[in-house]
């Protein structure tokens, strides 16, 4: 500010916003991220503007999750405050998405689709969540980003459960399992086995359910995860 560096001030405000978000000071975080947005728009800095929109989305997303954890509810059964907070997150992610499309930034589009999928899932809009996660999946494959691909499969599996499409969920969870083994991530592998065990219970295929729950148990024991 002293040297009149507006872009520097914008970036510093954004960093403050992200730090306050991590500290759980969501309202202060929004003020700082909004300053980042305002200055970026004033300076015609499209990249900064996109980043600020994404960051504000993240603050509302984190706030919504924080509020809903305190109430421990299923996706879709939310208080008015949580709903409004998650809807705001969604709006900012949508604005970010249209701007990064304009900028041709595919990686940023992938991040926006993933977060839109997650907020729509929490809001109980499972069909919308699926559409966003499919876009996320396509971009992850484009970049060969196996970790993002794995997350997308997992999220697609979760959303299909709530639509009662257990067989489709099982297919997505199997892909999650396959990728977690490729990535050699045992904790995620255990999680996938757990999800498959539950899904096969819902499908009333108890033999398969037992098989996957046993795999989950073995990994949990290996990891010493009580």
Kindly list the characteristics that best describe this protein:
mainly alpha, 81% helix, 226 residues, 0% strand, 2 domains, Serine Threonine Protein Phosphatase 5, Tetratricopeptide repeat
Spell out the blueprint of helices and strands.
Blueprint: H1 6-22, H2 26-42, H3 46-69, H4 80-102, H5 106-122, H6 126-143, H7 146-162, H8 166-182, H9 186-202, H10 206-222
Helix pairs in contact: 1-2, 1-3, 2-3, 3-4, 3-5, 4-5, 5-6, 6-7, 7-8, 8-9, 9-10
What features would you describe in this structure?
- Pfam families: TPR_12.
- It is found in: Cell membrane; Cytoplasm.
- The chain is an all-alpha fold and 226 residues long.
- It has two domains: 1-144, Tetratricopeptide repeat domain (Serine Threonine Protein Phosphatase 5, Tetratricopeptide repeat); 146-225, Serine Threonine Protein Phosphatase 5, Tetratricopeptide repeat (Alpha Horseshoe).
- It has helices at residues 6-22, 26-42, 46-69, 80-102, 106-122, 126-143, 146-162, 166-182, 186-202, 206-222.
Low-confidence stretches: none
Oligomeric state of the chains present here: single chain
What's the main sheet like? none
Percent of residues in beta strands: under 5%
By CATH reckoning, the class of the largest domain would read: Mainly Alpha
What is the count of distinct domains?
2
Question: What's the mean pLDDT score?
Answer: 96
Principal-axis shape equals: elongated
CATH architecture title of the largest domain: Alpha Horseshoe
Radius of gyration: 20 Å
Please write the string of helix (H) and strand (E) elements.
HHHHHHHHHH
Find the CATH topology of the largest domain. Serine Threonine Protein Phosphatase 5, Tetratricopeptide repeat
Distance separating the two termini: 52 Å
Number of strands: 0
Structural class: mainly alpha
Output the number of helix runs: 10
What would CATH call the homologous superfamily of the largest domain? Tetratricopeptide repeat domain
Work out the helicity level. over 70%
């Amino acid at each position: 500010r002293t040297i009149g560096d507006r872009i520097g001030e914008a970036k510093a405000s954004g960093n403050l916003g992200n730090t306050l978000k991590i500290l759980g000071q969501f309202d202060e975080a929004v003020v700082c991220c909004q300053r980042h947005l305002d200055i970026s728009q004033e300076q015609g800095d499209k990249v900064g503007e996109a980043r600020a929109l994404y960051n504000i989305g993240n603050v509302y997303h984190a706030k919504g999750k924080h509020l809903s954890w305190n109430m421990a509810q299923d996706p879709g059964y939310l208080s008015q405050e949580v709903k409004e907070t998650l809807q705001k997150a969604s709006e900012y992610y949508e604005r970010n998405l249209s701007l990064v499309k304009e900028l041709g930034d595919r990686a940023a589009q992938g991040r926006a689709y993933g977060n839109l999928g997650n907020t729509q899932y929490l809001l109980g809009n499972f069909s919308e969540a699926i559409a966003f996660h499919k876009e996320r999946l396509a971009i992850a494959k484009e970049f060969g980003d196996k970790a993002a691909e794995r997350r997308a499969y997992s999220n697609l599996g979760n959303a299909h459960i709530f639509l009662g499409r257990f067989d489709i969920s099982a297919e997505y969870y199997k892909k999650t399992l396959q990728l977690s083994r490729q990535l050699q991530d045992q904790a995620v592998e255990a999680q996938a086995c757990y999800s498959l065990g539950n899904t096969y219970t819902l499908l009333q295929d108890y033999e398969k359910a037992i098989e996957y729950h046993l795999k989950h148990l073995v990994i949990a024991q290996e990891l010493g995860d009580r």
